Amino acid sequence: MAATARRSLAVSANIGAAFAAATGGTAFVGYANREAYVVLTDRQLILFEANPSTGSPGKHLTSIPRSAVAVHTIKDGRFLVKVQLAIRGSNEILQLTFAPLPPSARVRGRALAALEGSTPPRTTQPAPPPRLAPQSRPAPQPWLAQRPGDPYQRPGDYYRGP
Amino acid sequence: MSRSLEEWAGAYVGGPPLLTGPVRVVDYDPQWPLLFGREEQRIRAVLGDTVISVAHVGSTSVPGLAAKPVIDIDLIVPSSADEDSYAPQLAASGYRLVIREPDWHEHRCLKGPDTDINLHVFSPGSPEVVRHQIFRDWLRAHPEDRELYGRMKKDVATRGWRFIQEYNNAKEPVIHEIYARAFAALGSPSSPRHP
Predict the structure, then answer these.
(1) Residue A58 is part of which domain span?
(2) Which of A42, A56, A58 sits opposite B177 (nearest CB)?
(3) CB contact, 8 Å: B53 with chain A?
(4) Number of domains in chain A
(5) Quick check: B133 contacting A, CB < 8 Å?
(6) Which residues contact B120 (CB under 8 A, 6 or more apart)?
């Protein structure tokens, strides 16, 4: 059981920045340095807290409409992949840090960086030390604008299964 | 996910039912998808455009998995909290509201008029619906976890329980283990599907 938990936590993402926003009718509260599973469906980015004792996905932390999320910065470091997400309607950045092992965690981090509709500035510079406090977002980016036919307005929700 | 017996009991409309015998876990029955299909047709006929999606979830939706012969269904409506938009129509067709959980994703559960079902009602975007899909699809694709889960259910069912939630809670260690593997293995999110 312990091995399972360790393996599971290794592929989860660490939410490295607190944020607070009200986007699309969904209220977010601050989360700092939580281990979390990241599930990307065709509608939403969903975060489930990783249970510290079992390693399994536990409490639902938040759901963010995909149309409200855009990649701000990608830091593909030697060990960690850090993806900073800008949330429409928020002044904060959500930073997800993907662990180096297993390799699928980094793959997932890079896949997240390819969020539909995002045209982020990219960087491959070594990642700086993690900043735990909320980070102010730079000037608003045009790619944060609501796209026509917001998919979140359509019913249903699905992730890409195994 | 895990809830205490008190939380679970408090959600029951009219109080939780006591088990009158051992929990019955049986081998997979190919009739289960057909029973779901019949319920889906009936629900769509009763609710019409109020239905956003209907999905077969839970163990009876996994071919080859032993299960309690109860068909779990996730019904998505525009607002599960707005019972007036669906519950009276379903009640007129013999469905009965048994669980109301405003504090847990506005979840509602109804029993069916003839077939033994749990009709779970959620709103769009509910994370629980996604969680159910992930678990179902993982078990469909991974026979080793399907076998593990089936064996464990048969073992746990032989113990004496007062409430079904006690049986459910006893299954949780293995469920957590499988959930962890399923979530950890989620593939690239670049090709999403619709229900």
Answers:
(1) 2-129
(2) A56
(3) yes
(4) 1
(5) yes
(6) B57, B72, B73, B74, B75, B107, B108, B109
Contact state of B193 with A60 under an 8 Å Cβ cutoff: no
pTM: 0.73
Is A84 within a domain? yes
Contact: B185, A104; criterion CB under 8 Å: yes
For residues B102-138, one letter each, b for 16 or more C-beta atoms within 10 angstroms of the residue's C-beta and e for the rest, the string is eeebbbbbbbbeebebbbbbbbbbbbbbbbbbbbbbb
Contact A157 B186 (CB under 8 A): no
CATH number, domain at A52?
2.30.29
A60 found inside a domain: yes
Pairwise CB contact (< 8 Å): B133 & A161: yes
Confidence at residue A27, expressed as pLDDT on a 0 to 100 scale: 31
DSSP states of B17-31 = PPPSS----B---TH
Determine the Cα–Cα distance for residues B183 and A39; give it in Å rounded to an integer.
8
Residue-wise pLDDT for A38-85, tens only, equals: 888 888 888 888 887 877 888 888 888 888 888 888 888 887 778 888
ipTM value of the model? 0.79
Asked if B15 reaches chain A (Cβ–Cβ under 8 Å), the answer is no
B97 close to B91: Cβ distance less than 8 angstroms: yes
Check whether A2 has a pLDDT greater than 50: no
Are A42 and B193 within 8 A, CB to CB?
yes
Identify the closest residue of chain A to B176 by CA–CA distance: A56
Domains, chain B, in order of start with CATH, read: 5-184 (3.30.460.10)
For residue A64, what are its two tokens? 């963010």
- Looking at the domain assignment, is residue A145 inside a domain? no
Q: Residue-wise pLDDT tens for chain B (195 aa)?
A: 556 667 767 777 877 776 677 888 999 999 999 999 999 999 999 999 999 999 999 999 999 999 999 999 999 999 999 999 999 999 999 999 999 999 999 999 999 999 999 999 999 989 999 999 999 999 999 999 999 999 999 988 888 777 888 888 888 889 999 998 888 777 433 323 333
CB contacts < 8 A, A to B, total: 121
Residue A12 belongs to a domain: yes
In whole angstroms, give the CA distance from residue B159 to residue B161. 6
